[in-house]
């Protein structure tokens, strides 16, 4: 038992938890290469640890975001139908569709989404919430919400639109996580922020809430097939729980602009990583 | 509208409490396991062996084996999101929101199916 490795893992978890909570991503795509390349941990155990990491980030962040009324429970519940059905589809499709093709497809999708985000960043200097016209699904399903913006000292009421489009994107996110074993928090944020026009902060918080449920199904599989090494997953999980709690505090005080600026390079990195993986290159 | 918002806050508060309890309990169990690992200087199992399955895990916890305690804590952590879905069904039912009781129940059923398929596939 190496004490140094436990401390290193807890530190990795702390950082992953902070960024994961702020951005609404599980960080599996980032944690896995850190564990395998930098720490020399077997890929099987790294994936097992990263799925635990997704759940730890989700639960740790959700506690704070529920208390601060930042997430949209109805949006989460409704869209979880899409992610869970997608996860099943993904599990059933294993072996049917070549993984390489999927990695390239989802990688390019992430890169494309980052260009949307860049356009949004450059688009308007006014970053206040611009009201949108809700579609009939949003009204029927009661998906409108409101959150407390700490920076502007006011409650922001918002509507969502393009619900079928968001639902389809969530289904794709579910397929990706079922097939490729990724938490796909980034896709969830894109579905809510870019497609459904939800404000960025509730999008991120709601994504945090959702990815725990998506990951729980695959986590039980990893749990019983020996992919989880206690001495790797445990310090990582504890570090993340602490980090996620800190991250939720920081996120509230960041401007959406700043969150986007952190998000874009991570999207591009993840997109490149996935697309290259499809071509057999690991970065 | 205001009424609806207030109800929603009640639902969210309940879910938040359940999650908090789940996370704190699992974190405490994991930390106890890690501490035991350091104090005893071993996992309680030969080599890299990890207790798999409920029987091995609980038997190990009874004998205070570090790896078994950590695995129990990790398992509790995995259960927190599932628990949240279950509590949400109850919470929406209390608020008489039948649409969302149905939606959340569907999510739970799909989640269970996904877990079963996962087992079968391995």
From TrEMBL, chain A:
It is found in: Cell membrane. InterPro entries: TM_pro_TauE-like (IPR002781), TSUP (IPR052017). Its main location: membrane. The chain crosses the membrane at residues 12-39, 45-66, 78-111, 168-187, 208-226, 232-251, 258-276. One of its GO terms (cellular component) is plasma membrane. Signal peptide: none annotated. Pfam families: TauE. Keywords: Cell membrane, Membrane, Transmembrane, Transmembrane helix, Transport. It is a multi-pass membrane protein. It comes from the Bacteria. Belongs to the 4-toluene sulfonate uptake permease (TSUP) (TC 2.A.102) family. This is Probable membrane transporter protein. It comes from Schleiferilactobacillus harbinensis DSM 16991.
From TrEMBL, chain B:
Pfam families: DUF1634. Keywords: Membrane, Transmembrane, Transmembrane helix. The chain crosses the membrane at residues 21-39, 67-87, 99-120. This is Membrane protein.
